[in-house]
Design brief:
Blueprint lengths: L4 E6 L14 H17 L4 E4 L12 H9 L6 E4 L2 E2 L5 H14 L4 E6 L5 H5 L7 H15 L5 E3 L7 E4 L11 E6 L3 H9 L4 E4 L9 H13 L7 E9 L3 H23 L6 H8 L6 E3 L1 H15 L3 E5 L7 H23 L1
Parallel strand pairs: 1-2, 1-12, 2-3, 3-5, 4-5, 5-8, 8-9, 9-10, 10-11, 10-12
Antiparallel strand pairs: 6-7
Helix pairs in contact: 1-2, 1-11, 2-3, 6-7, 10-11
């Protein structure tokens, strides 16, 4: 586990000013760039930007923000978290990220998924009844593009392609790509079929319940005669100087965000016990002091055998200075502790 990488994710949650008032989305986007720069400064491996099309998240075009970040950073890898491939064009996605890869000297990644929100379907004139076929066919086409060869392809969602090249080419020969998996056997099988690394989105429940999915992925690859491919995990969290401070600063924002999404999806209102369970040793929320967060990362990363852990560090309307401090603690204190624990 000494090769474990630590990264960050954010959806550009609309943050607040010092009085608690929400900031305009353009301000939040500029803050996200500053947060990514800080992540690079403290030596983190990856920054992933999620794609949403709603009022509570600022990022609708992750690749544009990442291109800005590329010009202000040197080492950190840059990717989506996730790109909602179902409601995008796979060729345009590939072209945008191959361009980002060129501009960043090979630091681009793309995490492909369905996303946990559906607002992009109506926005782009797509029918939710086509949910399955849209993702399956677009992923199939994207997987062909990864081969960096002329593509001949046909399906039901677009006109066929015959010996079609896509530009610019990837200098290394292959764009680093993951499939985001929420925890279904079918999703794991899909990652195996296309020989693409798997990123587990563990946002609720005990992380250890995902061990069978990681094991199944590795076993199926071996059965197919394919060498090991990376497995990663993404989970929400927040780091502060102490457990008490971290929980106090995060609690109300986490509860408000959970309540908002719950109203939209017909869930019961959240309770303080739900937060306590999520933040506890067996929950999916990595909140606390550097030592507490490091211990939880080390335990779960080892159990799942992952090669990367990405912390979704923005959760609701928190302040920019709090998020910057979280990033700093994660890079300078959590990371060394994790590596010591896994040594």
């Amino acid at each position: 586990m000494s090769d474990l990488e630590l990264g960050l994710d954010t959806f550009g949650d609309i943050s607040a000013d010092s009085s608690g008032e929400p900031l305009p989305a353009p301000v939040v986007l500029r803050q996200v760039v500053e947060q990514a720069v800080r992540a690079d400064e403290v030596g983190l491996a990856f920054i992933g930007l999620g794609e949403h099309h709603r009022a509570d998240f600022a990022i609708t075009a992750p690749d544009i923000v990442l291109a800005t970040v590329a010009g202000r950073t040197e080492r950190i890898r840059l990717g989506s978290a996730v790109t909602v491939l179902s409601s995008d064009d796979p060729i345009r996605v590939y072209e945008r990220f191959s361009t980002l890869d060129a501009l960043s000297n090979g630091r681009a990644e793309v995490i492909l998924g369905r996303g946990s929100f559906i607002e992009s379907f109506g926005l782009f004139g797509l029918d939710l009844d086509d949910y399955e076929v849209l993702f399956d066919e677009k992923l199939d086409l994207f997987a062909r593009l990864l081969e960096e060869k002329p593509v001949t392809w046909s399906g039901t969602i677009r006109p066929p392609l015959t010996d079609q090249r896509v530009y610019p080419p990837i200098e290394s020969g292959r764009l680093r790509t993951w499939i985001g998996v929420g925890g279904t056997p079918a999703s794991v099988e899909r990652a195996v079929r296309y020989r693409i690394p798997m990123m587990l989105a563990i946002i609720g429940g005990p992380p250890l319940q995902f061990v069978p999915y990681a094991d199944h992925y590795r076993r199926r690859l071996a059965e197919e005669g394919v060498g090991p491919l990376p497995v990663g995990m993404h989970s929400p969290g927040y780091v502060a100087e102490s457990d008490e401070q971290a929980r106090e600063e995060l609690h109300d924002h986490w509860m408000a965000q959970r309540a908002q999404i719950g109203r939209e999806r017909g869930w019961p209102p959240p309770s303080r016990n739900e937060f306590a369970q999520a933040a506890g040793p067996d929950g999916a929320l990595y909140v606390g002091s550097p030592e507490t967060v490091a211990r939880k990362i080390a335990r779960n990363a080892a159990a799942l055998g992952v090669s990367r852990f990405d912390l979704k560090y923005a959760n609701g309307a928190m302040r920019h200075d709090q998020l910057l401090r979280c990033i700093e603690l994660y890079g300078t204190q959590v990371a060394p502790l994790v590596y010591d624990m896994l040594a």
